[in-house]
Amino acid sequence: MSGTIRVALIETSTHTRRALSSRLAGFSGIELAWAVPTVAMALDKLRLPPIPGALLVDVAALADGGKETILAALAAHPELPVFLLDPKPGDAAPEGPWAGVVPKPLSGQEPPPDWPAGPLREFLGRAAASRLAPFMTGRKTDVVLIGLSTGGPTALEKLAPEWPGNLATPVLVVQHVMAGFDHSLVETIARRTRLAVSLGREGAPILPGTVTLAPAGRHMVVRPGAVPTIGLDDGPPEQSCKPAVDPLFRSAAEVYGGRALAVVLTGMGEDGLRGARLLKERGAAILAQDEKSSVVWGMPGAVVRAGLADKVVPLGEVSREIVMRAGLSG
After folding, report:
1. Are 289 and 319 in contact (CB under 8 A)?
2. Could you tell me which residues come within 8 angstroms of residue 140 by beta carbon, excluding any fewer than 6 positions away?
3. Do residues 129 and 3 lie in contact, with contact meaning Cβ atoms separated by under 8 Å?
């Protein structure tokens, strides 16, 4: 359900939990992920993907160590916005990284007609709209950036034959790969596409109609110039990965800005999230693979939950979106 935002609820009152669940389920663009009465039960849910796009927490659930427990859990999910539900929102709320404090009905009462209200309604409306918005096709694309990990080689094998030989932009790929497997991956992709495929090397020009994969053990970046070139960076691993997606995305944001298309595909973890955020700030377009077609919905899921994806599509539609944005030469 790529056109919705998944919302989870922790509410201690059975009556209020049912009432708020019903109201959330009826809100346009919202999918109720789950509703539980305790922080402990919520933690069990948060250990399993996919992580919801927003979490609503009854302020009463933060008593007796609940606040410390939920804050510890949030350390593993810093991108997850958390709204406190408080029957007396004017009172001082417990300190924490909350996205907002939202009024909720007293136990036994029904929520008012305009609930969800305040910052929660604004957030849900904005998030749902971002997921329903059509992919912006008016932007010029000068480079396609692809980041992927677990399940990535198989995804690339599926995509490569679908790229036309006259693709008008270069394609730069970071696949989390171990030493000794990068050359074989390049050979596999080269056999399946009409584009020129190579491993990244320092100073190589970034040209239309080419596919460049990051070599094992080096971060691949874009270096500025009249014709941008490939750079290889021997910096420390990022997100425990080398090569990592974030260095490519960050450098491309500096060189190409809004003329880049970033594509985040199947993979474990959150590599690419920070770079995608910077690209988005510079006006770039972001495409993410959907959960159903991903082997692991970690990397694309993090981008989607952060509200950065312009469009979320199954793997079978990724190449069509790339060609639509990149265009053809000649």
Report:
1. no
2. 259
3. no
Q: Which of 15-19, 84-88, 231-235 has the lowest mean pLDDT?
A: 84-88
From the list 149, 251, 294, 319, the catalytic residue is 149
Q: What is the token pair recorded at 30?
A: 């919202």
286: tokens are 């972001």
- CA angle (66, 69, 72) in 5-degree steps: 150
**For residue 83, what are the contacts with CB-CB under 8 A and spacing of at least 6?**
54, 55, 56, 57, 98, 99, 100, 101, 102, 119, 120, 123
Q: In the structure, how many helices (H) and strands (E) does the chain have? A: 10, 14
Domains delineated in the chain: 5-132 (3.40.50.2300), 143-326 (3.40.50.180)
Q: pTM of this prediction?
A: 0.61
User: For the chain, first and last CA: distance in Å?
Assistant: 38
Active-site residue, 149 included: yes
3-state secondary structure of 301: helix
Element (H, E) at 249: helix 245-255
* Catalytic status, residue 77: no
15 labelled catalytic: no
pLDDT of residue 156: 97
Contacts of 186 (CB under 8 A, 6+ apart): 197, 198, 199, 213
In this structure, the number of other CB atoms found within 10 A of the CB of residue 36 comes to 18
Q: Where is mean pLDDT largest: 5-9, 112-116, 199-203?
A: 199-203
Choice among 176, 182, 246, 319 that is catalytic = 176
pLDDT digit string (tens) for 118-170? 778 777 766 655 554 445 455 689 999 999 999 999 999 999 999 998 899 99
Q: What is the pLDDT of residues 202-232, one digit of tens each?
A: 999 999 999 999 999 999 999 999 899 999 9
Q: Both tokens of residue 302?
A: 């993090």
Out of 233, 271, 290, 310, the active site residue is 271
| Dihedral angle sign, alpha carbons of residues 310, 316, 322, 328 | negative
